[in-house]
Amino acid sequence: LTERLQNAMRKLRGKGKVSESDLRATMREIRLALLEADVNFTVVKDFVKQVRERAMGADVLEGLNPAQQIVKIVDEELTKTMGEEAVPLNKSAKIPTIIMMVGLQGAGKTTTAGKLALRLKNEEKARPLMIAADVYRPAAIDQLVQVAAGIDVPVFQLGTDVDPVEIVRQGLAQAAENHNDYVIIDTAGRLQIDEQLMDELANIKALAHPDEILLTVDAMTGQNAVATAQGFDDKLDVTGVVLTKLDGDTRGGAALSIRAVTGKPIKFIGQGEKMTQLDVFHPDRMASRILGMGDMLSLIEKTQQEYDAKQAQELTEKIQENSFDFNDFIDQIDQIQKMGPMEDLMKMIPGMANNPAMKNVQVDPKDMGHLKAVVYSMTPEERTNPDILNPSRRRRIAAGAGRPIHEVNRMIKQFNQMKKMMNQMSKGNMSGMEQMMGQ
Ligand code: GDP
Ligand code: MG
């Protein structure tokens, strides 16, 4: 997904404006990228429509940096599709808050039940009780007991011969007696949704009136995850989703679809087998993850990437010593060219937008190549000692670079202004410069 989107964005990057055909091509890439990431077809269709509508707005077409604007729109729409804000667990007004885990076999219910219990213990000093209501495999109860022992949480169980609804009834009675503030019910799953399972879960729900029915979905199952989520939600009206196995490289395609199709919030994500690897789901972070280009979302972040701290340090020293020369000037131009439009970058630097010197430092990106040619026509001495650039040297440089003399003069003037401005900044507030250099 990332690669596709990034390629699409790269094509746009150098452009000053987005034409309709550029936009169409980009939207096609985004659509394909999402489909490849297993995002549900209808979700993709709606999503692309939304992005296109926003991207067609006049603002974007006249924008200075269309690639960034489109990334921003895609990012915002992804975030919106996934629900904008993190949604906390439902909590009961009086104890216990009852959480029922549901989902297919192997989705991660038992593991997540343990993770959740640990989280509640750590965050709220809670005293949860877990109920073992998966009676179809003896191993399932053993597993829950083991998980619970590892995090020091009690388990209520009656073995495999008692009806799960009865187990839950007795478990709740015990929780009331012990004043447990949370009850987490671990239920059975199947390899596929079937009527019998759904009826059993519906019966447990009817008895326990859970505050939270957490549907646990394996993020690696792609399109199937959506069908599963829909099936469970239709029957049980779940209150939230936990997306498991989002470790490492797994992209969040399922997150996008599930939220869009069921309308139910994703509350947590599982990112590993360890008990601590459960995180609150943040739509904006997942959007960046799906896009794989959080780095492009802010110029500052990008600046930080492109400049390494050492370079920044060197430049800072040079400015302080007032030995900033044409070689540095060229380096700066190279760096800036890598980052996109100069104007945007400059605006990010605190104090820069209002700096009177800014008005004169208009480095048109298109002229940057010419600037380089001029610098390359200077002798090493001239580059490090700009003060010696008298009229005859300037004429020679202009001829060598194949640029008119007035352009050479203008550039030297710009260089001097830039130097002066940097000097001012270094004497006054360095923070702006340091921020620019990524320190
Ligand atoms: P259940 O059948 O729904 O109760 O699923 P389990 O809790 O038994 O989990 C099935 C398998 O998935 C186990 O091996 C878990 O360790 C593993 N698992 C659960 N959640 C995660 C996760 O977030 N990341 C990874 N990598 N593995 C997980
Ligand atoms: Mg289980």
Write the layout of secondary structure elements.
Elements (H helix, E strand, L loop, with lengths): L1 H12 L6 H17 L4 H15 L2 H4 L4 H16 L15 E6 L6 H16 L3 E6 L4 H14 L3 E2 L7 H15 L3 E6 L7 H14 L3 E7 L4 H14 L3 E5 L8 H10 L3 E5 L7 E3 L2 H9 L7 H8 L2 H13 L4 H14 L2 H7 L19 H9 L3 H5 L6 H11 L3 H23 L3 H7 L2
Parallel strand pairs: 1-4, 1-5, 2-3, 2-4, 5-6, 6-7
Antiparallel strand pairs: 7-8
Helix pairs in contact: 1-2, 1-5, 2-3, 3-5, 5-12, 6-7, 8-9, 10-11, 15-17, 17-19, 19-20
The chain binds guanosine-5'-diphosphate (GDP) and magnesium ion.
Short description:
The chain has 439 residues and is of the alpha/beta class. It contains 21 helices and eight strands. The relative contact order is 0.10.
Task: List unreliable stretches of 5+ residues.
Answer: 60-64, 294-308, 347-354, 429-439
CATH class of the largest domain: Alpha Beta
What level of helicity do the residues show? Answer: 55-70%
Percentage of β-strand residues: 5-15%
Overall average pLDDT: 80
How large is the radius of gyration?
30 Å
